[in-house]
Amino acid sequence: MRKVAVLGIGQIKVDEHWDKSLREIGGEAAFLAMQDAGMEKVEALYVGNMLSPMVSAQNQIGTFFGDWIGLWKQEAVKIEAACGSGAAAFRSALMAVASGDVESALALGVEKMTDKAGRDVTAALATAADADYELEQGVSFVGINALIMRRYMHEFGWKHEDFAPFSINAHANALHNPYARLHEKVTMEKFEKSSMVATPINLLDASPVGDGAAAVIIVPAEKVLRQPKVVVAASASATDAIAVHSRRDPMFLSAAYLSSKRAYEMAGVTANDMDVFELHDAFSIMAALSLEASGFAERGQGVRLGLENQIHPQGKIPICTRGGLKARGHPVGATGMYQILEVIQQLRGECAQTQVDGAQLGMAQNIGGSGATILTHILKLEV
Amino acid sequence: MRKVAVLGIGQIKVDEHWDKSLREIGGEAAFLAMQDAGMEKVEALYVGNMLSPMVSAQNQIGTFFGDWIGLWKQEAVKIEAACGSGAAAFRSALMAVASGDVESALALGVEKMTDKAGRDVTAALATAADADYELEQGVSFVGINALIMRRYMHEFGWKHEDFAPFSINAHANALHNPYARLHEKVTMEKFEKSSMVATPINLLDASPVGDGAAAVIIVPAEKVLRQPKVVVAASASATDAIAVHSRRDPMFLSAAYLSSKRAYEMAGVTANDMDVFELHDAFSIMAALSLEASGFAERGQGVRLGLENQIHPQGKIPICTRGGLKARGHPVGATGMYQILEVIQQLRGECAQTQVDGAQLGMAQNIGGSGATILTHILKLEV
């Protein structure tokens, strides 16, 4: 595999962009990435998106965006893996450049979610679950996560308030990220008083959806002269049964375990070496499970890292340093690209108040469905 | 790029499979390909599909199928490029294996189209067009193709009956393909008497939709000992503006021109060397335009190849040798995989009555939208 480096990044604020179309938000992130890379053209475009056929009546959005951003004639394609679409698109771009067939690739994660009524979006999101066995029962995504969280609390003896640090940390970090959806401090008191969504998940356990777009340009590593230079040290994808009831253990993200294990091997590192970890905290329970499956905590002990104050930017394993899904927001098909972009920002040292001191190695982990598709990417500062 | 070869193929008959679910039809093709390859596992799964979110309320169908066919834990992802999704998934599989990161990949094209009312499917198919500029005008896909065909007839002086040979040839070949949707001989008389759909496109100019699934397994070429051995000689993807009105010349498939040109260069061949060409005859006008843009005919002269009887299996350039989209059927996201599979069948010499004598080099060309995304693959018999 040819070594690949990052040349440019671009993002827009995750928000309710009612004044902008799908085209416009994706185009903006793509242009910013090209500007950051100092490029006017890239050879191929990989778009990560989940909902455009249902929410915007638009398929073929690889070509749709290639057209819009002036990449006429160039290769373009859409990649979908539910909420894991962003990282899946990044991985596709990576494979194309690593193979030697493509010399520069733009990976774009984009999602327009606020043009439809909330119930329509909830129904559209539910297509990430198993239509025959889960959707058929009327279970929503928050419902599935609530079942997992309740069992986890019962099994390992945690109380609801023990999950508060995930929410508090994410919101505290988002205060310093202009691209974050929510700029609102969360305290333990607020957390415990927040409205219930699906017991035991309340509003501050759950990430907000939103319109968002983030883009990353990659090229062969030897072509990047700019400093700081960030290279892709590892990329791995793994899956589990799509329906939760088919999994051996619904409280263990085996696809996170497998993809992180493979990524560590590829990069020749361990979890201990990681300076920053952008994980997929769609719900606070997922933050705990991701930390456990990826080797940062023992089974059932993921919440302890929060309680022991080890997840903030100067902690043992900083997570959600730009706000995470919880506060930066979760524009589903774009989320994975935001995570990768945020790791790059940390390695470049661009995170100001939430900068992890001397960050040299970072990991982004993106989840599709309730743990069905999980992609892990490791990025490294190369000097 | 690492050289890649085909190890197994599998397909089901394109039909109205009302007794089978999305899961079942895709699984069947995948199992047949694994059986043909003599493999029980593959490392990664790439699913080409367009309509599952809208027709089956199912997203994340990479993992959905990995789960169903027993590829638990393995990488899986969905690729979408409208009707070009099949070949786009094949290309993604190819990039992964060519990069050296993946050792075996299953590319699966699958589409379930007959579980919804025809008007819903027509609306879902229209999402391949530009939602803001084309869909908004109420134009359907057959409408767009009718506009192009009418202009072509006016511009180059052809009559409607001049397109008959495309339909007659496709239907004649499909009679010998058990996997074809339509087994019905078409004559010039039938062609001219067929019901009008959107002037000048009548029913026998248009391909039928259907439920379908086709799968191809690829591995590094050096690992294939079986004879006949088919290798991937070239893969290229190019795009054009998504909306027809934005194209420089709506009668020239510039993305077919570019992707075939690039493929010829990669394979070190010319159009003249091609023994068989599975083109994307969604409408008869597209057969003519594909032949022209890919170097088999001069501008405006694609229909002449049919009129001069050069497109049948022993003609100068055999097309649609297993029935093409017209008679094998057009299960949109699966079509590109059927085309690649059919070229492989020709190179393996498995086509009986429609076998192209001594076929050693074949090309498959898959179109997304009305010419917006076009992928060209060249396969070669290696002895």
Describe this entry's structure for a reader:
2 copies of one chain form a homodimer. Helix content of chain A is 35%, strand content 19%. Chain A is built from 13 helices and 11 strands. The first copy, chain A, has helices spanning 22-37, 52-55, 61-68, 85-99, 118-125, 141-156, 164-174, 188-193, 254-267, 284-293, 302-307, 324-327, 332-348, and strands at 4-11, 44-48, 75-80, 105-111, 196-198, 201-202, 212-220, 229-239, 276-278, 361-368, 373-382. In chain A, the strands form 3 sheets. A 5-stranded mixed β-sheet of chain A has the order 1-7-4-2-3, with helices on both faces. The model of chain A has no long low-confidence stretch (mean pLDDT 97). Chains A and B meet through helix 3, strand 3, helix 4, strand 8 and helix 9 of A and helix 3, strand 3, helix 4, strand 8 and helix 9 of B.
Which helices and strands appear, and what pairs or packs with what?
The structure is a homodimer of 383-residue chains.
Chain A: E1 4-11, H1 22-37, E2 44-48, H2 52-55, H3 61-68, E3 75-80, H4 85-99, E4 105-111, H5 118-125, H6 141-156, H7 164-174, H8 188-193, E5 196-198, E6 201-202, E7 212-220, E8 229-239, H9 254-267, E9 276-278, H10 284-293, H11 302-307, H12 324-327, H13 332-348, E10 361-368, E11 373-382
Parallel strand pairs in A: 2-3, 2-4, 9-10
Antiparallel strand pairs in A: 1-7, 4-7, 5-6, 8-11, 10-11
Helix pairs in contact in A: 4-13
Strand arrangement across the biggest beta sheet of chain A: 1-7-4-2-3
SSE string of chain A, helices as H and strands as E = EHEHHEHEHHHHEEEEHEHHHHEE
Structural class of chain A comes to alpha/beta
DSSP E strands of chain A, number: 11
Query: Tell me about the biggest sheet of chain A?
Result: 5 strands, mixed
Strand content of chain A: 15-25%
Low-confidence stretches of chain A: none
Kindly provide the radius of gyration of chain A, computed on alpha-carbon positions and rounded to a whole number of angstroms: 19 Å
Counting copies of identical and different chains, the oligomeric state is homodimer
Tell me the number of helical segments of chain A per DSSP (H or I, 4 or more residues long): 13
Largest interface (C-beta under 8 Å): A-B, 67 and 67 residues
Average pLDDT score of chain A: 97
| Shape estimate of chain A | globular
* Helical content of chain A (DSSP H or I, runs of 4+): 25-40%
Distance between the termini of chain A: 21 Å
